[in-house]
Write a structure and sequence with these properties.
This protein is of the alpha/beta class and 321 residues long. The protein has eleven helices and 13 strands. A seven-stranded parallel beta sheet has the order 3-2-1-4-5-6-10, with helices on both faces. Strands 7, 9, 11 and 13 form a four-stranded mixed beta sheet that branches. The chain is globular. The two termini are 37 Å apart.
Length: 321
């Protein structure tokens, strides 16, 4: 039985990944700050370890076969790049170096699709696309990109696989995080949506992709875990269909979003935290589309319709709110 160490196990992806790993017969040790924060299913092959990413795991890693690093700072309201770099880059590098010295067999890093260049509906972005200049200004994406570069430079010292999920939806979104987009439209009579679009994927498919990467992933390769490219308007139409609700939908003009973004920049200049920024608002105006061809072929994933992810998200929120 392979022994796997998972960071961020109490998050949306971490919880679903834990369930998938246990269902496949793996023995899982999950890192959490507080055991009570884990809302997933308990199991005899699951051990929760309280701690933080900068603890010394050298002794523990001597008995670990695979590390899957999902933990990250994803908040959009942080002001300084160092707040992202500390966790998303520095902690990743420390875990990676400890894995090497402890002779761990495989290191799987969960990054983001935004370290790759997005494309259009007819020519979606792939693993070969270089990072778009807009996302180079995103502190979150930039910090993940720096971590990726370090891992790839050292890929010959340990089997290293990078997965790049797009926008994940599904159950166990306890914060909520990405599920906020569901709450923006669910039970609302008015829905305001931005002019752009993005790629949506069921978190269970991402978890499956990571599990399959253990056996099928190639060291030094990146894998986009992506599914449906949709405009925000199309996404909320799907949400309305799933919930059988009728709403008035209003498109927010690009100019309004850009003005809001520059207002957020002013707030940040005064050290006031805000998710508003010119970068974040410009991102909402682009069609951030990606292809899943490589992961379907090499990781043997069959993706489910995004409506299934919407249903699972709503079902979870109904049971836990």
């Amino acid at each position: 039985m392979k022994r796997i160490f998972v960071t961020g196990i109490n998050g949306l992806l971490g919880t679903n990944l834990c369930h998938s790993l246990i269902n496949k017969g793996f023995e899982v040790t999950g890192l959490v700050r507080n055991k009570n924060s884990f809302k997933g299913k308990q199991h005899k092959n699951l051990k929760l370890l309280e701690g933080n990413l900068f603890d010394d795991f050298s002794l523990l890693f001597n008995n670990i076969d695979i590390i899957i690093h999902t933990a990250a700072v994803t908040n959009q309201n942080l002001i300084h790049y160092s707040e992202y770099f500390e966790v998303n880059s520095k902690a990743t590098i420390q875990l990676y170096n400890t894995a090497i010295t402890s002779n761990v067999k495989q290191f799987i890093f969960v990054s983001t699709a935004n370290t790759l260049g997005y494309g259009t509906l007819h020519f979606p972005g792939t693993e070969n696309n270089k990072m778009n200049s807009l996302f180079r200004k995103s502190f979150y994406a930039k910090s993940k990109f720096e971590a990726e570069n370090f891992l790839l430079k050292n890929k010959n010292t340990i089997a290293t696989i990078i997965v790049n999920p797009t926008f994940m939806l599904g159950a166990y979104d306890t914060k909520p995080s990405s599920g906020k987009i569901i709450l923006m439209g669910w039970k609302k009579k008015l829905i305001f949506y931005p002019p752009g679009g993005k790629n949506f994927v069921h978190v269970k498919d991402v978890a499956l992709g990571i599990v399959n990467a253990i056996d099928y992933g190639v060291s030094g390769e990146k894998y986009l875990l992506a599914n449906e490219n949709m405009s925000y308007q199309e996404f909320f139409i799907s949400l309305n269909k799933v919930t059988n609700q009728k709403t008035i939908m209003i498109k927010i003009p690009k100019l309004v979003l850009i003005i809001m973004g520059y207002f957020g920049d002013i707030l940040r200049w005064f050290h006031i935290r805000s998710s508003l920024s010119s970068v974040n608002m410009k991102i909402l105006c682009v069609n951030n589309y990606f292809s899943n061809s490589k992961s379907k072929k090499e990781l043997k994933i069959t993706y489910v319709p995004i409506e299934s992810a919407i249903k699972d998200s709503i079902g979870y929120f109904q049971e836990n709110t």
